[in-house]
């Protein structure tokens, strides 16, 4: 369910050309964050919104789009946020 919620929030916010979400939560069973229900995810997203933005700005945009999910449902989030021009250069 969390993966689909992440997908919906990021799709609504960015209308991405590419969006891949990997749930790594099972690999972290027993981890402190997993005990409180927070999952471990990795997101690869390609969207126009990241054009001309620094890495920190891109991450801030993703965190903002995910909002309250970052407080409990998501314990750890890896982000690979690219603009379409970077994707064509093979940066994924």
Unreliably modeled segments: none
Overall spatial form: globular
Largest sheet: 3 strands, mixed
User: Tell me, what is the CATH class?
Assistant: Alpha Beta
Domain tally: 1
DSSP strand content: 25-35%
Mean pLDDT over the residues: 88
Our Rg estimate from Cα atoms comes to: 13 Å
- The count of helical stretches stands at 4
Instruction: Find the structural class using helix and strand composition.
Output: alpha+beta
CATH superfamily: BolA-like
Percent of residues in helices comes to 25-40%
Q: What topology, given as strand order, has the largest sheet?
A: 1-2-3
The fold-level CATH name is GMP Synthetase, Chain A, domain 3
Distance between the termini: 26 Å
CATH architecture: 2-Layer Sandwich
Number of strands: 3
- The helix-strand sequence is HEHEHEH
Describe this structure in words.
It is globular and about 35 Å long. The protein is α+β, with helices and mostly antiparallel strands and 92 residues long. It has helices spanning 2-14, 32-35, 55-66, 84-88, and strands spanning 18-23, 39-46, 74-82. The chain has 4 helices and 3 strands; from the N terminus they run H-E-H-E-H-E-H. The model has no long low-confidence stretch (mean pLDDT 88). Strands 1-2-3 form a 3-stranded mixed sheet. It has a single domain (2-88), classed as BolA-like (GMP Synthetase, Chain A, domain 3, 2-Layer Sandwich), CATH 3.30.300.90. The two termini are 26 Å apart.
């Amino acid at each position: 369910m969390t993966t689909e919620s992440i997908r919906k929030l990021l799709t609504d916010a960015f209308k991405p050309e590419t969006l891949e979400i990997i749930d790594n939560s099972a690999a972290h069973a027993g981890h402190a964050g997993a005990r409180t229900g927070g999952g471990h995810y990795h997101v690869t997203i390609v969207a126009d919104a990241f054009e001309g933005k620094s890495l920190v700005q891109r991450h801030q945009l993703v965190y903002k789009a995910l909002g309250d999910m970052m407080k409990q449902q998501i314990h750890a989030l890896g982000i690979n946020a690219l603009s379409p021009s970077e994707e064509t250069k093979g940066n994924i």
